[in-house]
Amino acid sequence: MTVIDAQGLVKRYRTGGQTLYALAGIDFALESGEFVSIMGPSGSGKTTLLNILGLLDTPTEGTVLLEGQDVTGLGDSKRTRLRKQTIGFVFQHFYLLPTLTAVENVEVPLLLDSDPKVKKRARALLERLGLGDRLDHKPDELSGGQKQRVAIARSLINSPKVVLADEPTGNLDSETGRQILDEFRRIADEDDVAIVAVTHDDLVNEYVDRTVHLVDGTIGRERKNGG
Amino acid sequence: MAGRFFPAALMARRNLTRTKMRSLLASLGIVIGVVAIASLGMFGVALQYSFTQNLGNVGNQLTVYPNSGENITELTERDIRTIRRETSPTATVSPVKTRVEPVSYNREDAIRETIYGVEDPAALYEAKEGRVSPFRSGALVGSDVAEEHELHPGSQITVNGTSVRVRAVLEEGDPFSSTNPDNRIIMPATSFSQRGYSEVYVIESTGTQANETAMGIRGALNDREQRVVVQELGSLVDTIEEQFQIINTVLAGIASISLLVAGISILNVMLMSTVERREEIGVLRAVGYQKRDVLKVMLMEATLLGFLGGIAGVILSLGAGLAINHYAVGNAMAVFRLPNAWYVGAAFTFGVLTSIVSGLYPAWKAASEEPVDALRG
Ligand SMILES: Nc1ncnc2c1ncn2[C@@H]1O[C@H](COP(=O)(O)OP(=O)(O)O)[C@@H](O)[C@H]1O
Ligand SMILES: [Mg+2]
């Protein structure tokens, strides 16, 4: 099933009389359970694409369909609600709240809902990611890899259809990076979640279904892995 | 856990503990503001209270003086008869003569003192020592005079060269009353050679009655020329109470300035905090927090700061109130009177409101930041 279908995406920025194309016409579709990586040099538009796919940003031109629904022209409040329901985010710098414990950080997206089941689910997710003994630790008591696992658990708390990860291994050594990619692979397979990860790391090719190369806001050659 | 029922409060509370010192200093401003408003308010109340306590019951008294502005130096028997006609049947009317005489106590040098001549002092005064009536000779002395010169019933004073026996020492009077005898020497009116009177005291049963009588006397005696001045203590009391009200309002206004300063410091702290937490707030927005959710979390922080400062302020204010009332009224427990509760309550409310209002702008700023921009760093 196609989770996201983006057609003809263009993102223009006007800065001081000059027009800059961060995205210059991109088609991108994502099936559920698919693990896709986006690679490309710095400034090629990777983050911009990810933000548009994740309803954080809107394209200047083009359309985005989320589970068949056109979400291109939606306002901030509706996009925010859809993010909460169907999308998970993982960031390079983890962005955990330093004042909250691991479990509380995982609960954050649903914290205002006051649903008692959320805490149980947060624990289960952390245990599944191998952090059963770190549930009540604050972020500064965790290693980089552990922090990113907490962040992954947080991205899964709302049972999303898509997880978008912007350079999730960028701040980790290659061994820890592998473990994180391993987790993504498992999540895509076990939970049927579509995952898009931006990365510089060639290692990623061992784990993903396909890699999209971005150059100056356009899609370069695409390589499919296996089948 | 409180966080389960009020998750925004959990986040807000944790965020405040992150920068403990800064939060403490910010709410210290609120503490000072609340204490300033509450204790200045309570100070005003205590002043007013001790004033009314001292005033006692003088609202029903009138004093009629000859109008020196019209060159009238004394009131005649006819004036007195007119005054008696204008008063109600139950009123006490005491005409008073005065003369200035050299008086010496305990054979010391004579000082010139005013001697008051009252016909029936028992209608006005009670004795602390000795007896007021019958009063045909001798002198009655006020408590201050007696204390200063160590006079008791039976003591001798010398008035204009003649030895006079003290009959009684009088009870203290109301400090604001014109009949107050504390500093006076009183002798029988019959001992006075002049015929005119220098003032007349009228004591009615109620303040309203006193007011009517005053108008009656003015109407009867100031018809053709302004013969008399009628002083009503009741209206004086009203005027003074109004003054107190103004003073209280001004004091509370001055104290509010400290809350303004506190508000600015909270604004500053919250702005710093939104700048430092830009990415965190961006993440909250990314994972599905609506603008109003962010607003809620941030305002919750401001509210907590306000409550923290407000509660500490109320506790300190009660302490200050105990001290104020102990010294101004002589009864520390007088702090638990209704007007004080009003001031403390108002101070607390203003403290919390100030905090919330100061948090509005930073919260709005945090909420309206585009998550894309916040996360790009
Ligand atoms: N808010 C913005 N204003 C102007 N230019 C921007 C803005 N955001 C991104 N860009 C530009 O768009 C291009 C793509 O940026 P980005 O998607 O962040 O690239 P990548 O993530 O691949 O490094 C860059 O040239 C960047 O400078
Ligand atoms: Mg980027």
List the helices and strands and how they pair.
The complex is a heterodimer of chains A (227) and B (377).
Chain A: E1 2-15, E2 18-31, E3 35-39, H1 46-53, E4 61-66, E5 69-70, H2 76-86, E6 87-91, H3 102-107, H4 117-128, H5 144-156, E7 162-166, H6 174-191, E8 194-198, E9 210-215, E10 218-224
Parallel strand pairs in A: 3-8, 3-9, 6-7, 7-8
Antiparallel strand pairs in A: 1-2, 1-4, 4-5, 9-10
Helix pairs in contact in A: 5-6
Chain B: H1 2-5, H2 7-18, H3 20-55, E1 61-66, H4 77-86, E2 92-105, E3 111-118, E4 127-130, E5 139-141, H5 143-149, E6 156-159, E7 162-170, E8 185-188, E9 199-203, H6 207-221, E10 228-232, H7 233-276, H8 278-286, H9 291-328, H10 338-368, H11 371-376
Parallel strand pairs in B: 3-8, 5-7
Antiparallel strand pairs in B: 1-9, 1-10, 2-3, 2-6, 2-9, 4-7, 5-8, 6-7
Bound molecules: adenosine-5'-diphosphate and magnesium ion.
Question: What would CATH call the architecture of chain A?
Answer: 3-Layer(aba) Sandwich
Structural domain tally of chain B: 2
CATH fold type of chain A: Rossmann fold
The profile of the biggest β sheet of chain B is: 6 strands, mixed, barrel
* Strand residue content of chain B: 15-25%
- Briefly note the structural class of the backbone of chain B: alpha+beta
Ligand identities: adenosine-5'-diphosphate, magnesium ion
Highest CATH level, the class of chain A = Alpha Beta
Brief overview, please?
Chain A has 227 residues and is of the alpha/beta class.
Task: Give keywords.
heterodimer, A: 227 residues, alpha/beta, Rossmann fold, 4-stranded antiparallel sheet, 6 helices, 10 strands, 30% helix, globular, B: 377 residues, alpha+beta, 2 domains, 6-stranded mixed β-barrel, 11 helices, disordered N terminus, binds adenosine-5'-diphosphate, binds magnesium ion
Tell me what you see in this structure.
The complex is a heterodimer of chains A (227) and B (377). Helix content of chain A is 30%, strand content 30%. Chain A is α/β, with parallel strands linked by helices and 227 residues long. Chain A has one domain: Rossmann fold (3-Layer(aba) Sandwich), CATH 3.40.50. In chain A, the strands form 2 sheets. Chain A has a 6-stranded mixed sheet with strand order 6-7-8-3-9-10. A 4-stranded antiparallel sheet of chain A has the order 2-1-4-5, covered by helices on one side. The longest helix of chain A has 18 residues, at 174-191. Chain B is of the alpha+beta class. Helix content of chain B is 56%, strand content 16%. Chain B has helices spanning 2-5, 7-18, 20-55, 77-86, 143-149, 207-221, 233-276, 278-286, 291-328, 338-368, 371-376; strands spanning 61-66, 92-105, 111-118, 127-130, 139-141, 156-159, 162-170, 185-188, 199-203, 228-232. In chain B, strand 2 (92-105) and strand 3 form a beta hairpin. In chain B, helix 3 (20-55) runs antiparallel to helix 7, helix 4 crosses helix 6 and helix 7 runs parallel beside helix 10. Classes of the chains: A alpha/beta (227), B alpha+beta (377). The A-B interface holds A 47, 51, 54, 56-57, 76-77, 80-81, 83-85, 88-89, 91, 93, 95, 97-100, 104, 108-109, 111-112, 114, 116, 154-155, 158 and B 3-5, 7-8, 10-11, 14-15, 17-18, 279-280, 282-291, 293, 296, 371-372, 375-376. The site of magnesium ion has 2 residues of chain A, from helix 1. Chain A: Belongs to the ABC transporter superfamily. Chain A: Pfam families: ABC_tran (PF00005). Chain A: This is ABC transporter ATP-binding protein.
